[in-house]
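Posting here for the record, re: uridine-5'-diphosphate-xylopyranose.
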Amino acid sequence: MPKCCVVGAGRVGLVAAACFAEAGYATICIDSNQEKLLTLQDGLLPFYEPGLQELIRRNLNCGKLQVNSCLSEAVRTSDIIFLAVGTPVNQQGEADLSDLNHVVDELVQIGRELQDKRIIVNKSTVPVGTGDNLSRRLGKANGCYHYVSNPEFLREGSSIRDFTVPDRVVIGTDSNRTYEDLANLYKTFLPETTPFLKCSLEEAELIKQVANAFLGIRISFINEIANLCEQVGADVRKVVQGIGLDRRIGTSYLKPGPGFGGSCLPKDMRSILATSRLKRVDLSLIEAATRANELQRQLVVKKIKSVANDSQLQKTIGILGLAYKPETDDLREAPALDIIRLLIREGFKVKAYDPVCNPEAQKLFPGVSFASDPYDLAKDCDLLVLVTEWKEFGELDFLRIRKIMRSPQVLDCRNILDGDRLCQIGFTYFGAGISSTCVEHS
Ligand code: UDX
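Prediction output follows.
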């Protein structure tokens, strides 16, 4: 049975390491951050991901999984080395590959003393062309390394399921032997029906970024249609139902909202745009979807202003949900952060609540008052704005909330609340892409 090494104890790295160990492979996860390693060795996680902590604990306890910082020892004792280090991009979309480059330099050093072959599998998202460069550099180490691009399509909040029941496994390599070795590793624990795609390094790198860009385009598309629905007396949910019945279209990634966030969609779109500028290829659709995503946050604030603006009184806005989506503690590029910033600039008093992100968000907004629960948040608010669709927000007691708000008004940016019922019990309700004529305003 091949032994696995995963470099990088971030979300992708830890999920991969835990799942390989769970599948029975002896796995070592390497990270240079000692604090993170101590947290993991204590059986805790440096971030929130459902199910992962138990999986890591169990495999650490039975010895299938190890975490430490010694790359050279791990490479010597492993057959397949997965790279899952962070590759952030700046606002211009230029990728910071310094962590990846550093690991590759170390691998070249270590490789000079290796006698037999190792497969190096890159899971970090990189601009197209990176793999070609890395594989040339790795080639300097006695030819002992075979470099493969194997992008990861995990969604936060459902990472373990996405890893163990993926829609597909993409393997970029020109070597049939290396492809087989890696595919066989996966085939021992993935469902038999999982499609495998063999392609070139460049194609694998593009597939990851293009998939995310396409999802971003879908979301921005429906957000723009939602904005139109509000102006023409329509309900976007019906429109999505209607177009989604067309099997060519479907309904996924067509939920309107305050714009997409997170560490991948916005970043990958910026990165592919940077490549397009370099290669002088027009990717105007991706550009427009990125711009629409930025505008979407501003439109939420415009809506809030039209509902709650009053030159005489400073209105209090309660933000329900801060994470960029439910089941994660990730605030990266979260729409709620932009909305709060803009509201403060507009002179509103802002209160906020998130079931898991309060402590992190508090550091960013010392002037915002953070509530201990949704009822504490609603107290004295003129408008509640539901930004993240945490399940518990759909189960709130709105009769109780109505009594404690200054004025019972809700803007549901995710359409998870029952607008008709809220109107019946005395709320003024605004949805996303739902014209006011479509809800029973009392
Ligand atoms: C995404 C990709 O789905 C995943 O394949 C890739 O590996 C990493 O990036 P993730 O960032 O976890 O995963 O989030 P995802 O669930 O895709 O949602 C991204 C954003 O789009 C969230 O802000 C979400 O709220 C928003 N979204 C999603 C919508 O606004 N509407 C939708 O219909 C779907």
